[in-house]
Amino acid sequence: MERVRQIAAHLNPHFAGLLGSMLNTSNASLDRVKYSAAQVDWLDALAQAMQYVKENPTKVCFKTLKVVVMLLPGLVAGPFLHALGFTRLGPAARSLASCVQSFMGNVAGGGIFACLQSAGMSGYGRVVVENGIRVVVFVLPAA
């Protein structure tokens, strides 16, 4: 930490004071966290958590699944898009996507179909679909 202060003072004296203040605040916050963590009876907390899991296995399972899908929506998006027929090479033959495209004709850029196809090809639509999955998962109640 002292070396960081020396470098900051050398680069810009005004910045050194700000950095020193930030480091002091960070150290104080870290000390508070250490103190609070030392006050917790971790074995009792673990026992309470295990008891909650035993009493509510379904709720814990669904909440864990929600967290995983929120962090990794691609685990759902990839299989979902593939099941609809949106693949890396375009709509799969004899799939729902190819059927819809044959009825639509030309696909409008920026439309829902184009976005889903882009997601299937790992383009801009992937972010849209994954965030849509996050919204659905967030809104769903946990069992």
TrEMBL record:
Residue ranges that the Swiss-Prot or TrEMBL entry lists as coiled coil: none
Tell me which family the UniProt entry assigns to this protein.
Belongs to the IFI6/IFI27 family.
Q: Please report the name of this protein according to its UniProt entry.
A: Uncharacterized protein
How does this protein lie in the membrane? Multi-pass membrane protein
Q: Which UniProt keywords apply?
A: Membrane, Transmembrane, Transmembrane helix
This entry carries the following GO cellular component terms, namely: membrane
Q: Which Pfam families match?
A: Ifi-6-16
Transmembrane keyword on record:
yes
Localization annotation: Membrane
Natural source organism:
Aspergillus leporis
List the taxonomic lineage: Eukaryota, Fungi, Dikarya, Ascomycota, Pezizomycotina
Q: Which domain of life is it from?
A: Eukaryota
